[in-house]
Amino acid sequence: MANSANESELQPPASPSAGPRYWRWIVALVCLLSIGLVYFFFGRHLSLDSLVAREEALRDFQQQHWLTAYAGAFVIYVVITGLSLPGAALLSLFYGWLFGPVAGVTLVSFASTLGATIAFSLSRYLFRDAVQRRYQQRLEKLNASIEAEGAYYLFTLRLIPVFPFFLVNLLMGLTPIRLWTFWWVSQLGMLAGTIVYVAAGASLPSMSAIQQQGLGAIVRWPTLVAFALLGALPLVTKQMMKRLRRSP
């Protein structure tokens, strides 16, 4: 018995990262299989000629039925953000590409704020009391930050993507922050990111331009600058917020 106890003590502990690494491989495999299935069933529709034809049909519809296309795009964005589904960032790029910078920013700004407010309200009125009771200690720090800094705390979370935006919507619904405060702070705080995302999308060339010029149509200064700003935005906003906190 003593020997078995000693042997068990000498055995190396299991690696704590084995589980997460195992799941990463599963996720990667599922993603590869999904891509393979999409290409198998829809590959013939993803050729450049097919995409050019579909783009022409899409732009014709958008020009002939501008209000319908704009309203439909608005509703789609609100539903995706309101239900906390993935894809909002890609939609922002797509709307910039389809509608242009001004109309795209206007659409994404108001649709993202409305969707965020819906997610906030669902979190508050469906789950707030139950989650607060179950995770009271974990949420105390968040509640204290809201009570101490209020709108400024939410504004910081909107500018600096420490958490995904959908998670901010759900977490804020569990706090005592007021609905109107959440609305206008989100509208203002997400505006910078919205402008950068939509501008990046608007800088992308059309499919016909890619067909004629090749990948050189993508490697242009406006596109490179827009996507460089997209990558630098979190760092820039983080430094700005640090300086604001230090200033008297």
From TrEMBL:
The keyword Repeat does not apply. It is found in: Cell membrane. GO terms for cellular component: plasma membrane. Keywords: Cell membrane, Membrane, Transmembrane, Transmembrane helix. Residues 86-202 form the VTT domain. The keyword Cell membrane applies. It is a multi-pass membrane protein. The chain crosses the membrane at residues 22-42, 69-97, 103-127, 151-172, 184-205, 217-236. InterPro entries: TMEM64 (IPR015414), VTT_dom (IPR032816). Belongs to the TVP38/TMEM64 family. This is TVP38/TMEM64 family membrane protein. It comes from Blastopirellula sediminis.
